[in-house]
Amino acid sequence: MVIDHTALNPVGARVTGIRVEALTDAQTDLLRNLLAHHGVIILPDQHIDDDQFRLFLRSFGETVFTEGETPVPGHPDLNVISNVGRTTPPRSQFHVDTSYVRHPPAYTALRAVDVPEQGGQTLFSNQFRAFETLPADVRENLQDRTVTHVMTGLDLDEDAETSAEHPLCRVHPVSKRTALYLSTPQRCAAVSGLSPEEAEYTVASLLEHSTREDNVLRHNWSPGDVVMWDNRAVMHRADHSGVVGDRVMHRGMVAEAV
């Protein structure tokens, strides 16, 4: 089986000729490199179960779980994302996963369990391109600033991490490119060296710049899809508008090597 990949615009790569549950070390290294440069990998026609999904995740490192999420029965390191039984659609804004901890996950992956008849896309922004297309004076002004990321919307234990400071302009350890490292405005509590008003305006402006239409990939889910992304290079959100039918995803995350 020949491994092939096709770059997508403006972010991501579609990878074929590979089985996610039986990766060799060389294949894992190839996927890591694709993630570092393309941000997202789409792996179609996998049709795997949760045990195989965990094997895939653990090829990349130690799995981590966001406390407060709903675990997959029998698989406590995976969580369920579902619209089943809801009277109102879930809400999602562009964000990075679990950025309120000192060492956020490097990778997140979803496997399609139930794909709706209509809608339910996942959107990804190219945060390398978002940084590189800023005016030079803006890049220089932001270069050494940090953002305080905070937890929102989860019921955590008293001793759980709920706040962490990260560079706003983050150099990727593999590609060495710089990405804007942002999350939803509610999770960006402060920007170093800026007043609260300046920080709020800066975060809102950068998010608008990052998520403009020409910087976002919309992934239409198909049965059997597995999608992984690099949290250091992209933001993401689900589009729950106009969904017809059940949308069920199982999610896993991989810790960054420190």
Describe the structure.
The protein has one domain (1-258): Clavaminate synthase-like (Double-stranded beta-helix, 4-Layer Sandwich). It is 20% helix and 31% strand. The chain is an alpha+beta fold. The mean pLDDT is 94. It has five helices and 17 strands. The strands form four sheets. Strands 1, 2, 3, 4, 5, 6, 7, 15 and 17 form a nine-stranded mixed beta sheet that branches.
Question: How would the blueprint of this fold be written?
Answer:
Layout lengths: L3 E4 L5 E4 L8 H14 L1 E4 L6 H9 L4 E2 L6 E2 L2 E8 L22 E10 L7 E5 H6 L3 H7 L3 E5 L12 E5 L1 E3 L6 E3 L7 E4 L4 H15 L5 E4 L6 E5 L3 E5 L9 E8 L3
Comma- or semicolon-separated keywords:
oxidoreductase, 17 strands, 258 residues, Double-stranded beta-helix, 9-stranded mixed sheet, 3-stranded antiparallel sheet, alpha+beta, single chain
